[in-house]
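Technical annex B. To support the medicinal chemistry partners, we prepared a structural model of the target in complex with 6-O-phosphono-beta-D-fructofuranose, based solely on the information shown next.
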Amino acid sequence: MAKRGLHLSKLTQSSVWKSLQKRLQPFDGLHMRSLFATDPDRFERFSAEACGIFLDYSKNLIDGETMDLLFTLAAQADVEGWRASMFAGERINTTENRPVLHTALRRETDKPLVIDDDDVMPGVASVLAQMREFSDAVRDGSWTGATGKRITDVVNVGIGGSNLGPRMLDKALRPYADTALRLHFVSSAGGGMIGGVLAEAPWESTLFLISSKTFTTEETILNARTARDWLVQQSGGEDALSHHFLAITANKTKATDFGIPAENVFELWDWVGGRYSLWSSVGLSAALAIGMDRFEELLAGARAMDEHFQSAPLQENLPVILAMLGVWYINFFNAKAHAIIPYDHRLSRFPAYLQQVDMESNGKAVDRDGQATDYDTAPVIWGKPGTDCQHSIFQKLHQGTDFLSADFLAAAEPHTPVGDHHKVLLANFLAQTEALMMGNTEDDVRADLESRGASVEETAALLPHKLFLGNRPTNTLLFKRLDPFTMGALIALYEHKVFVQGVVWNINSFDQWGVELGKNLADKMLGDLDNDGPAHLHDASTNGLINRLKEFRRCRGIR
Ligand code: F6P
């Protein structure tokens, strides 16, 4: 943690911040039950809708005055100005001196966007056309492996933003996918992932997408080399590479040096951050699976959310509302975590995807001016799909000691209608947010126990355990169906939420220096693991661990 509290920021010294601190007082001891009881319009007042996504945020510890102050805070942080700067391609990623233009990837391609005298849109259009041509060719069988076999398996080799988005989409959009194509994702340095895929993949019909903006990420290059060696060995030479290897990168030279022909390279630009890149050719695995028309529906959904974000007043703006509720809890209720609970197993990878979007963007303790923040920033993002998570993490949500907030997401219509399953799923979905908000009362528990014939002593003993305090805040996001358009809108909603929070916290949400140190040390560590002698260059703990590991490896006969 950066040293906190030495510098008093403009943010925490602002009168609106101080007013929000005072707004905590009315909520002390106040239960949301009474907020609902005294305001019959609460649901209408605290709900909003855009791009097919309905947001109910009435089950929060808020009232009209609090929301007004939160919107004032957003306005004073100049969310609208920063938003305009981002969409216009100004260099708001100051530590890397880059524009932040993932929104250009889903912009209408005939609308120019000039950055440094250069219209970026023809480049975007050309890569989209390349994606269409390639995905059509794979899907209709005209692109084949080196021996003429139709492609059956696609392996995305990439990590972080070059993995989490496409991997999440693979599951989310599977009902729209061509089942003849199997997608695999290889990310970690551990050999188990690539080894597992190579053990099963038929080389003649397998395509490798080497997805790395920099084409220098250690894990990706390690896995790509292993895959390349495997293919060369299986096929008997390097000629097969042009049929089986593609690169998605902003570093064409490195990709061609690696052995991937220039015409197999899909361009990326430095103005696309890794965690915001699924809209680019980083999404190629999704385009291959669902086809380019569907992929463009995904882009259209994100574009619709971009338009909503840019045009809706702050008070009706979905990303702004979600962002400011987060600020309310993180900075005023001292919340440390926020859960994402989709009631859809197709969204099971959505929390993991949002972890990078949120925590890599805003997990920072230094503001844009290099000052340590005197306020908290990104929460821990966690979560799992319902109803499974009701049987694992929900005990803590309902009765744990931490202040936790959560987003609940569900579609009204399932992709796979099976009897009453979806209705049961939705009943659970609704019941949980109601229970989290309402809780129960001592009278409820007592009546329940008595109706079960419990004695006075048993009732007294069990009562504290069966009491749910409730008053736990949730947002509910409803949509008709998890189609590509809705998925696009949903992802963009969270991207912009994170952006708004970054603006309020005065941090650069678009760099990620925090991941560098560990990477650099890992390079050095490799040398230490190779050395025969005992480690002595590190702290006592790390030296001790290196030596113990070497000993374990020696025992197993591994060098
Ligand atoms: O984890 C750091 C990071 O730079 C992420 O931001 C990025 O998504 C990931 O590594 C992968 O980077 P690349 O696409 O350059 O391989």
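Notes passed to the chemistry partners:
The first helix runs from residue 10 to 13.
The radius of gyration is 26 Å.
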